[in-house]
Each structure stands twice: as C-alpha cells, then as structure tokens.
Amino acid sequence: MDKSTFEDRKAIIAGPMHGSQRHDSAHKHVTGTADYIDDIPEPAGLLHGALGLADRAHAEILSIDLSAVAAYPGVVWVFTGKNVPGVNDVSSNGSHDEPLLAETLVQFHGQPIFAVIAETRDAARRAARLAKIEYRDLPHWSDIDGALANGSPLVITPMTLHRGEPETEMPNAAMRLRGQMRIGGQEHFYLEGHIAVAIPGEDDEVTVWSSTQHPSEIQHIVGHVLDIPSNAVTVNVRRMGGGFGGKETQGNQFAALAAIAAKKLGRAIKFRPDRDEDMSATGKRHDFLVDYEVGFDAEGRIHAVDATYAARCGFSSDLSGPVTDRALFHADSSYFYPHVHLQSKPLKTHTVSNTAFRGFGGPQGMLGAERVIEEIAYALGKDPLDIRKLNFYGQPGSGRTLTPYHQEVEDNIIARVVEELEETAEYRARRNAIIAFNRDSRYIRKGIALTPVKFGISFTMTAFNQAGALVHIYQDGSIHLNHGGTEMGQGLYTKVAQVLADSFQVDIDRVKITATTTAKVPNTSATAASSGSDLNGMAAYDAARQIKERLVAFAAEKWNVPPSDVVFLPNRVRVGESEIPFPDFIKQAYFARVQLSAAGFYKTPKIHWDRKAGRGTPFYYFAYGAACTEVSIDTLTGEYLIDRTDILHDVGRSLNPAIDLGQVEGAFVQGMGWLTTEELWWDDKGRLRTHAPSTYKIPLASDRPKIFNVRLAEWSENTEATIGRSKAVGEPPFMLAISVLEALSMAVASVADYKVCPRLDAPATPERVLMAVERMKRV
C-alpha cells in the first residue's frame, strides 16, 4: 500500500463522524443570532394569546362571566372549551383525560379555562385577569401522602415486575430491613419557555411553529381539536432553547389554542406565556415515595427486594404510565436481585399533570436502589462501594445477568468503569483521609461517594423506535438534510450532519441542516429517550446508502470499472485510476439522470415488551457510567460545597467527543440541582408557590464542583450495530449526580460515627441536611 492510499484510508476511518466538531449553532447561541420562534419576523396582522387560569385546586365551575374580558381594549376574541371545533382534549396517549380548556370541572390550580386573543400580548394578559368565575370547591390533595390518605385513584393501570420467589425467599434472608425514601420533583426551567405561532392557510390548512420535541404529536393534536386531517397541518421546529422532556407533550395546549384562533380569525396567532404561567400550567418531573424491603446476607449480598414506587402524577395520565414503568425498569440500578417484586403506584393528585423529564423515571428508580445499597452498608459497617461491587450484574454465564423484567444484561461493563474510576479518582485513599478529617473536625464534615449508572436505551413503547430522514444532493454537490429529530441544544443536528458528511466523505459545511418539519418527514417519534442520534443517525445513513448505491452503479457503468473500484475519498471520488472532485462527480451523475434524493428509514431491532406480563427486551443496549463526588457540609447551618467530582462515562465510540463531554457535564449539574437545591412546593390551597426564579433555585455556574474532571471511556464500543458503534448520551449521565446525594449522606452520617443510615431525602436542601445532622446527634 502506498502512502497516499494509506492516508486516504486513515481519512475514511477517522472521517467527520467521530471528530469533535463544534455545535452547528454554537456561535449563534453565544452571539444571540440564533433564531427562536419569538425571533421570527412577525406576520402582518399578528394577534397574541393569553391563558385564563383557574384559581382553585379542585372545583366545579358554576358560571363564567367573560364580558369584562371581551370588553377590554384591544381584545379581539375570547373563547372557552365550547368553542373548540373538534374535540376539547390534548391528551398525548388517547386517554381523553386532559381537556384543552376546562369546561365544568377544575382539577388543579392554574388549569386553563379560557383563552384571550388581543392586538398585543400585554392587552391579552391584562384582560385575562378580569374574568368572573363562580366555583363550588371540592376536596383536594396535592401530594402523595394526601393521595394515599384519600384513597386516590390511579391515573393508569400500574405495572408489576416479578422474578424468582421474593414472597418465600425474603424470610429466608439472613438479615432484613425496611425503609422509605422521598424523592422530589423538578421544574424543567428551559431558557426558552413554551411558545407557538399558528398561521392560517387556504381551505383547512394551518402552519404551526412550535417549541416542541414532538412535531408529529403537535400535528395530530392540532388536527384533533380543529377536526381536520393531519395532512392539513404542518408543524415546523428549527430549534428549542432547551427541552429536557418538558416539550414532549406540554406544547400541545399552546399550539392547539393558537391554531384554533388562527383558523377562526384568519390571522396569525402567537401564544407565549410568561415564566410564572409556564411553570404553573405545565408538568414537571414526578416526585416519588419509595417503600422498600431488602433481604441480604452478612457479606452484604442482596437476596431479595420488594419495593413500591408511588408517584405524584397530577390530574391526568399524560406520560405517567411509561414514566413509572421506567422507574421500575431502573429500580435495580446496576445490581442483580435474585428474587424481586416491584410495583408502581401512579397516583392522581390535584396538581398539574407531571410529564417527561430527562431520565424519564429512571433517576427515581435508580435513586431508590442506591438507598437500599446504602442501608445495607451502614447496617454492616462497610463501605457502600464494596456493597455496590458485590452486587453488580455479572458476565454472561454467571447466572447473575437477568433483570427484574427478564432481559439479559449482555453488554455489562459496569465493573470495569467503576474500577477504573476508583483508581483514577484515588477513591480509597481519599475516603480514608476524609474519615480521619471528620474525626478531628468539630463543625465541617466531609463525605465521598462513588456511584454507578446503568441506563437502558430505547423507547419502551416499541412503535416509537423508528425514524425517517430525507436527503437531497444538489447539482453543485451541496447536501440538504432533514430528519424527524428536533434540536434543543443537545447537538443532534450536528451529529446527524456528521453521519451524512462521513457517508459521502465531504466536509461537514457542505451539509445544510434544515428545520424539522412534518411536511418532509412524517410520523416522527419524539426526540426523547436518549434515542435521537441512534434513530435519526441511522435513518440518514440509510438515505445516504441508497444514493451511494446509485452513484456507484452509475460510475461503474460510465467508466467501465467494477463497483469495488468506486471509492469515496475526502471531497472526491476515485473511479478506477481517476479521481474526480465530489461536485463534478455529482454534476455528471445529474446529467446521467441519477436520482440524487432518498428517504431513509430505521427501526430498532431486537426489542419487544409485554407490559401486562412484565417480560421482554425493552432496551436495545445499556449505557454505563460512574461518578465520584466529594462534599463538605457545615453542621451548624446545613450548607455545603461540592468540592470535587470525577466522572468516567460510556458513550460507546463517540460521534462527537466535544458535544458528548458537554452533555455529560450539563446532565450532571442538572441532576445535582434536582438532588440538592431544586424544590417544588405547593401550599394548602394547592397553589404552586415555587413558580419563578425568585422562589425556585436552579444551580448556578458557581455551584458546579470546584474540581470537575470528566472523561469518556474511550475504550468502549457498542456491541450492538448502532450508528458508528456509539451510545446515547442525553439521559444516562443525569444519574451520575446521585454521587452528590450519597456523599452528603456520608458527611451527615459521620456525626453519628457512621452507625446508622441518615436516610437523607431528596432534594437535600441545606434545611434537610441540617435536620438530618440533628437527628444524627440524637443517635
């Protein structure tokens, strides 16, 4: 092989796909030139919408007087649920339990009852406050305890996972313990709130710009409320200013309201709620109450687990079924349970319906499992890391590979990830030093924890594991890419463009990334479940494959060479002994009437799930990771600092290491916020009081670990045939933040000489840390 051929092959191997390309919009984000929906030039005659919200948690609506609202200067139209042309429902799962506008019954404080359309946003908002509504109050409960005490119904049929004989084997365990853990919810707090613009078209047509992770669902819902077919609705999304799951279903109501008004009035309509309304009227991460019992031996090896995961779901089902299901799927964390019984309890409450949030129930399930490990460690006086390692899933053939849902863990690398991080983070030496420090320190106590992550990748609804992509090559060799995934800042557009550039061996700036639209790729799945790159990358690859096959056949015939002699090289194509610049090659193919467009498609193989039986293979593969965190707490105030975090995370063979590192860092900090400072609080009237930045505390840049070392497991490669042998990175690293809570727990436990588990609930606010310290002083 000569040197030039060797260099060419190196380029093919490296390619654009696995390089650290910058995010396609990074420069626009930092300069303020990235266009979001509120930046689009406003159409002539644009009107603005505002919501009229209920001020009761649970009540019958006796009468509604909107005369003062309609009379307010600038108001064009006021409408209620009775004015919905189609069905007054925006439920995402076909349950018909989520009215667009409440008509006779209010089920949470802040529920939309009517909408105001006015010449200005200010006029619409001011007018919305003038409504006179009479209610008959009904009993309400806004938390899990209230739901349980009042025998609350479930919003959806619960799921049960069962394997082995936990009923008979639990009593046979050498040691047993029971406990309970409270896990708080979380507000998405995206930088760009919900927004929708609807523009009426001819006949029954309407175009909607929506900040959504699920354009096809918006299309379906708009058609549903207008009583028109989906082919009359076009939904566009160029980018979102953050999503995190909060824009999977919660954009439905704003898009539907805008579309109804647009078709009624024949004018463009914009709905953009302010932050308070957004936080009051849209769903959040589910909070959980976990009751657990574990049987184990004197070494700390788990024998049996029985746990119930009760969740505050809100007034309707929304995505609570799959969220609570995934909590059970991850209630094993990284550990093998020989005998296990797990049950979900999705409770109805008189609060806004909770919804998808990064991790989708997995973090809550995993957190419960780590509490079980912690309980065992303190009961036996051992290092929790030793208990973790003792209970890890084993390798194939070990008899310790079967999950509670009867899927084999075939790609297990958790032991290697943890052992590597344990060594590089110097965990043992630092833990010993911390124990010595705590022995001599009066007020400041330290803690350290190393926790694992094993997260299943795929939608648990099998049908959602599909994607499409549309690829065009123009005569000048430039490439147009459109796919069903949405960009919310995570770099999906860049990664899929890298796949395409790699396929044709062209520079990535030759690929134009265009807005996601239902007019080009139909029936898309939500950009969720960490599957965006897996699904859309493979769909784009399939489209490129089709075009390349045509181009190879064309070249082989034209130049009379075997197909194997047609090779795509960086920005050129080798045909036999000749090399042709890519644009010239494409132009020749065009004049030979070669089709230069293709619709690609991909569906995830191997997966299946039987929810009723609690058996199947819901996940295509698992992503792994580990984090080691050190903290310091002030035992007089409960305040704390995150001193250091070391992370080793598995993304398979990274499509873009720079973007993946950013995803890991961001997910960790967001998870840290969930477990420490972010607290949702409803008062006794069912009002959300943490509805603004003044009352809801997300992490600041200064809250990040003072030392923050993040590495990707460069040796990892997905054993499944994913795009580029990569792994998902959106959700799995969120759970690395569990190491923060566990480290805080160790610091608190030092007050009682590590004799008992502190049972620190989440979020571990300074107040909760201080109360836990005071409990330890009484031990």
Automatic annotation (TrEMBL):
It comes from the Bacteria. Keywords: 2Fe-2S, Iron, Iron-sulfur, Metal-binding, Molybdenum, Oxidoreductase. It is an enzyme of class 1 (oxidoreductase). PANTHER family: ALDEHYDE OXIDASE 1-RELATED, XANTHINE DEHYDROGENASE. Its cofactor is Mo-molybdopterin; FAD; [2Fe-2S] cluster; Mo-molybdopterin cytosine dinucleotide. Residues 31-139 form the Aldehyde oxidase/xanthine dehydrogenase a/b hammerhead domain. GO terms for molecular function: 2 iron, 2 sulfur cluster binding; iron ion binding; molybdenum ion binding; xanthine dehydrogenase activity. This is Xanthine dehydrogenase molybdopterin binding subunit. Belongs to the xanthine dehydrogenase family. Its EC number is 1.17.1.4. It comes from Rhizobium vallis.
